[in-house]
Backbone:
């Protein structure tokens, strides 16, 4: 395995990682705080507009916005704990805690979606509960679409910048809320033109959209928790980078695995068997540095050197 021999280099890398982690936490707290305030205000406005504007879809939409508030709180907590420094009990860090936050967010979305769908279905079978929405509900739904779309892009851009899965999940939560508001708008418009049942049907549609978003967020989080490999295109690019290092005859094995928002890489390379140990180590060091330099997402690259022509044998 290739290891950095310079204590000064290790110290500067630790300082950089600590500073980077603090920046991520600060950015996540700012974005999530904005989301919390916006969603509290939106959920109250939509709830009141849904009640006085007689729109079940808008009431369902207000519940969705309220779930965003809990989601933002989970994101802040998840990222804060995930960016803690490695310790003796957790030598590989705490990055996977961010995935756990995403999973919890997905669970909240599933419960929210189930409640909305249940309420919508029971209302359809109790026609006396169906009423015609007013223009107030229509205006609030339109305003909600604009605000939630702005929140989506704001959160998504910051999530991409700091490479945060939990914050990215929160961004898509905003987008699902915007889609919910579009559903509310359509349902309200149809209901106002003589099809009152459409408002209830669209509330069920909102629940299904929430389910879909929850599934996507949950699947991505699970993939990272079970050490899924990086995508094939990235692995191929890594192979090319390794192959271009002087002294590498060929790649014997390359394995990758996601670790929260980061990744680990294990590489076995073949080199000239006549080389001295120091020369072989230098080649391994160059491979290690090339991978971590060209792929910032990689947390650590481990390199094992084989003499060319060596065949792995099973030891009893």
Residues:
């Amino acid at each position: 395995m290739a290891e950095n021999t310079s204590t000064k280099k290790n110290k500067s890398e630790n300082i950089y990682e600590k500073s980077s982690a603090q920046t991520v936490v600060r950015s996540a707290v700012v974005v999530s705080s904005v989301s919390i305030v916006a969603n509290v205000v939106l959920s109250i406005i939509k709830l009141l507009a849904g009640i006085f504007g007689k729109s079940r879809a808008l009431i369902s939409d207000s519940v969705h916005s309220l779930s965003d508030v809990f989601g933002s709180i989970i994101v802040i907590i998840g990222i804060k704990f995930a960016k803690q420094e490695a310790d003796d009990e957790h030598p590989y860090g705490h990055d996977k805690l961010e995935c756990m936050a995403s999973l919890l967010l997905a669970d909240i979305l599933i419960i929210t979606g189930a409640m909305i769908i249940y309420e919508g279905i029971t209302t359809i079978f109790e026609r006396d509960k169906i009423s015609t929405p007013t223009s107030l509900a229509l205006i609030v739904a339109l305003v909600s679409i604009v605000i939630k779309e702005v929140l989506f892009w704001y959160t998504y851009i910051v999530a991409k910048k700091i490479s945060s899965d939990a914050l990215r999940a929160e961004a898509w939560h905003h987008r699902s809320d915007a889609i919910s508001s579009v559903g509310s708008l359509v349902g309200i418009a149809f209901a106002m033109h003589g099809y009152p049942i459409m408002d209830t049907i669209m509330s069920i549609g909102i629940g299904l959209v929430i389910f879909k978003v929850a599934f996507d967020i949950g699947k991505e989080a699970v993939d990272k928790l079970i050490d899924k490999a990086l995508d094939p295109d990235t692995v191929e690019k890594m192979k090319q980078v390794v192959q271009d290092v002087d002294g590498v005859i060929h790649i014997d094995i390359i394995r990758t695995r996601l670790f929260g928002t980061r990744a680990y890489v294990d590489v076995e390379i073949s080199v000239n068997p006549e080389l001295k140990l120091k020369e072989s180590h230098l080649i391994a060091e160059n491979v290690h540095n090339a991978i971590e330099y060209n792929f910032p997402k990689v947390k650590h690259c481990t390199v094992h050197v084989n003499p060319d022509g060596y065949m792995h044998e099973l030891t009893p």
